[in-house]
Amino acid sequence: MLNQNNLQKLELRAMFKHLTIVSLFTASTAMASAEQLTLYTEVFPPYNFVQHNQLTGINTKIMESLCERAKLSCTFSVLPWKRAMSLTLAQPNAGIYSTSRTAKRETQFYWVGPLVSGHSCLYRLNARNDIKVTSTQSLQNYTIGVSRGDVYQTVLADFNLAEGLQFLTYSKKFEELKMFKQGKHDLLIGSSLTLSSQLMNVGMSPDQVTPVFELKHPALVGNYLALNKNTSPEVVNKLQHALDTMKQEKLIDSLVDQFVAEDMHSHGEALTVAQQCLNGSAIY
């Protein structure tokens, strides 16, 4: 009998093949003369995830609409984040979406956005009611686990927190979640919209944690599409114009409502917990 992790791996393998076939068929028929764009992302619900062997999610649906409105032939691929970032930097007409626009990355890409993101918050285990965070200075008294290379590593360093003391980095996927669950560090960083899916990876549910503080930093103000610098500026402008138009037409509002509702249905109390951290409101 397949467990959830094995089933997800099978879904991902099938999805990679399926998306490649569909994308190439689209490019060779209906949009043969359109400019080509390869778009990478990772599995990161509710922004991008696999459902019934199909890539979907709030930002994936936005990107599909942008490609159609800009008359671009787009191929979508799901890869581990580091691999996706590496390919985007190396390939002309490539992009990576649902990524943070940091100072370090600013000059490496052309940017389209913001797409949809959530508010970043710090969470504690319910039993740890001794933890009190009233400012970033309070974080000097606690330990936080983050994924190595994640934008949160930069954010915490900017708050004058020291790696190895106030925050610990992990290279293995979900390791910071496992350590948090075991009480090996005090706090976990999560987005108000992604917390539920994060915790599910280690057999936890949102009702086991309590939000204690919202993190505010320039790098946490939104998700973006980052495009290789060899992409035509005309393509960049078309995509940004299409996104601005979608926002004016309130089309993104309906997508957010759709996928946040689905996430709540799939993972229990996701929206309820998110409401404790700025009502789970989306940023875009």
Give me the secondary-structure topology.
Layout: H1 4-28, E1 35-41, E2 49-51, E3 54-56, H2 58-69, E4 72-78, H3 81-90, E5 94-100, E6 109-112, E7 117-118, E8 120-125, E9 144-147, H4 151-158, E10 167-170, H5 175-181, E11 187-191, H6 195-200, E12 209-214, E13 223-228, H7 233-248, H8 251-267, H9 270-275, E14 282-283
Parallel strand pairs: 1-4, 1-5, 9-10, 9-11
Antiparallel strand pairs: 2-3, 5-13, 6-13, 7-14, 8-11, 8-12
Helix pairs in contact: 2-7
Question: What does this protein structure show overall?
Answer:
It is a single chain. By secondary structure, the protein is an alpha/beta fold. It has two domains: 4-116 and 222-278, D-Maltodextrin-Binding Protein, domain 2 (3-Layer(aba) Sandwich), CATH 3.40.190; 118-219, D-Maltodextrin-Binding Protein, domain 2 (3-Layer(aba) Sandwich), CATH 3.40.190.10. The chain is built from nine helices and 14 strands. The chain has helices at residues 4-28, 58-69, 81-90, 151-158, 175-181, 195-200, 233-248, 251-267, 270-275, and strands spanning 35-41, 49-51, 54-56, 72-78, 94-100, 109-112, 117-118, 120-125, 144-147, 167-170, 187-191, 209-214, 223-228, 282-283. Strands 4-1-5-13-6 form a five-stranded mixed β-sheet, with helices on both faces. Strand 9 (144-147), helix 4 and strand 10 (167-170) form a beta-alpha-beta unit. The protein is globular, with a radius of gyration of 19 Å. The protein starts with a helix and ends with a strand.
